[in-house]
Structure formats: structure tokens, C-alpha cells
Amino acid sequence: MSKITDSLTQAFLAQEKLPGSFADTIEAWYLPLVNRLLSIHRQHGPGLLVGINGAQGTGKSTLAKFLALVFQQQQLRVANLSLDDFYLSHHQREQLARRVHPLLVTRGVPGTHDIASLNSLVKQLHNPKSSGRVLLPRFNKLLDNPCPETQWEKIQLPVDIILLEGWFVGVMPQNEADLVTPVNPLEAEKDEQGTWRQYVNLCLADYQPLFDSIDFLIMLEAPSFDCVYQWRSLQEEKLKNRMKVADSRSMDSENLKQFIQHFERLTLHGLEQLPARADLVFHLDRQHRISRMSQ
Hints:
The chain is α/β, with parallel strands linked by helices and 295 residues long. 45% of the residues lie in helices and 16% in strands.
């Protein structure tokens, strides 16, 4: 595999506009993970479901893209999914905001996804006896709406490996008592009665059957929530530079600060309880580098 991945790594760095030093991360951490997942796949067979958890900006999509690229080079059929691709449309979230709570207009938290479609698709992909073709949804974050179906990826069943990444993949609901005290100004000022966070927590239970079906769970663990805003800012800039869209809903600094607060509660909850439940944890330092691994 080394000869393949040497050239593949360089192409990947160029494609993702990553610094040359990132090749060290690939060599030290990603490739051993690739070998481990290939070994698990040989034992498991088709339909291996790999979950990737990490706070905003931790590098979930980068890891998922690299894994998919290497697996495809190994002649494996890969479905690369993100929770983000299953967001409800902006119009649907506006309706949800009017019906339940205004904060639900903002995408991201449990309850703002088409969970029925997500569950149905993953169940089909996870089944080694599935046949035919399926479409993998894609979401345009700058336009804040799903991409048209003509832009969705077609994939032939059965698949060998499913990659499912998302900021709360594998996270379990909180105890009701933990919902009482606001964790930031957004909750204190815009969710005084706790209606939004109670609804989000209730909806999170609907994701648990999907999370329970994950065969191997990876966590990219941020050192603290303080790093998330900085990392997410870099992610937003990268997104805007790549997607030159005039009619977009990209965020300035103040909007991004408020946006990030929507994720703080469950991110902190995940940082507390998920490392003990994940099959493998990459611990990140404040410079956004993997400093160590635990399993």
C-alpha cells in the first residue's frame, strides 16, 4: 500500500489545500487506521459502518475523504456520508422554528435533520445483501439548502464500507437535570425556558438506533471547546474560498460566534462521555495536530 499512498497522499494534499507537513499526520496516524479498518473489513465483510465524531473544525471530513480515497484505491466500494448532508431545508427549519422554537431555524443540532431518510439510507447501505443503485444526498452549506438531486452521488450496492461523520455521531442524550442550567449566552438569552435544549435532547434519542449500529467509532477529540471557534473560522474561510457563490449565507465573525454556541452543550457532553465509548480516539492539541491515540 505504501507505493500507492505516497502518490495518493500528495494528490490529496493538493486537492484539500493542506500543508506539506500534513503528510506526517497521514503517515503516523491515518495509515495505521487504514490498515486496521481493512483488517476489520476482511473479518466483517460488506456493509462495515464506520462512525467519525469530532467537534466543528476538528478534521472529520478530511479524515473521511482520505479514508474513502485509499479504500477506493484498494478497489473497495465506499459510501462517504455526513450528518450535514441530511439537514432539513431552510424552509422546513423555518416551519420547525415557528412550531417549536425560533432557534431551530439554525441547522446543526439534533432535530434539524431528515432522520427518517438518514436511517433508511444507512440501513440499506449496511445490509450486505442490498442490490441496485442509491443516491447519496448532498447539502450546500453556503446556500443553506440541500443540493438538487442531479448533484447527489450515485453508488452501486452492496458497498464495502460506509463512513458516517458528524459532530455528534455516537453522542447519547443528557439527563434532564443537566438541561436546567444554560451553558452560554445563547441559551440564557434565547432559550430561557429550556424549550429548545429539551427538544434537541429529545430528538437526539431518535439517532441512537443509528449510532448503535456503528461497527467502529472514531473520535477526534478537541482539547477544549475554546479551540472550536478558531478552527471553525478557518473552516468557514476555506469553504468560502472554495465555493465562489455570490448569493450565499456565509457567516461573518459575530454570526459565527453565535452559530457555534448552538453546538456547545452537546460538544461538551460528547467530550465528557464519548472517549470511553469510542473504539479509537485521536487526541488533538491546541495547534490542531494529533498528539496521541487511545483505544
